[in-house]
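ok trying this again, last paste got cut off
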Amino acid sequence: MNRLSIALIFMSLFFVSSVVADTITIRADVWCPYNCEPGAEAPGYMIEIAQQIFGTLNHTVDYQSMPWARALKQTRSGKYVAVVGAYVEDAPDFTFADFMGTSTMIFYGRKGDKWKFDGIKSLKTIKLGVVRDYAYTTELDKYIADNSKGNKVQLASGEEAIEINIKKLKKKRIDIFIANDKVLAYHIKRTGRLIDDFQNCGLLSTDKVHMAFSPKNPKSTFYAETVNQGMKNLRKSGDLKKILEKYNVQDWIK
């Protein structure tokens, strides 16, 4: 066997071992049903999708939760491979897989509240609760930035941000908060509250959510394409439907 053949064998072995050894580190704040508690029986449908897709290639998914701003910052730096539940506006420099669901953001008030969202100007009459470092819409993000130093806009942080805003609403420290309708419904079910305790005060936006890969990772394009192809396979096999049914989520592709 000549030296070239030996070199090719070693290169092939290195490539195979690197594929087998890949650990896909995913970070995000808990945002059920998209991504839930790490290690739980139901870790979130986006996490289960990632586990199925990368698992078929012998990759390991390492999912942990952390505040959203830190997840974005450290994934952007290359410390982690990906985030889940991202809008393109959250991190336009990341490499995005095809969308994996939608996020409908609603203004919620106390039961019986008569206030209705009617554009940014209508926010001037209320105290608003939002989540720190979330991307909403261009107009609303500017309004938040311009008003967050007073009490007109109050920022909740951490993995229990939605619970913080609910408690502030009950104590009348805020009048309205913004939440994803699926996330709020999941949180209410988990905490034993009633959806009827909250008044839907208007739609802000509906956006696509993605798995997004670090701009510093040289394999990000490959990983995104792997997810895209894997989604097609899961949909065709019926496995995607089984995952989504666990979370009472409908397939976003009709």
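PB: full thing came through this time. The mean pLDDT is 91.
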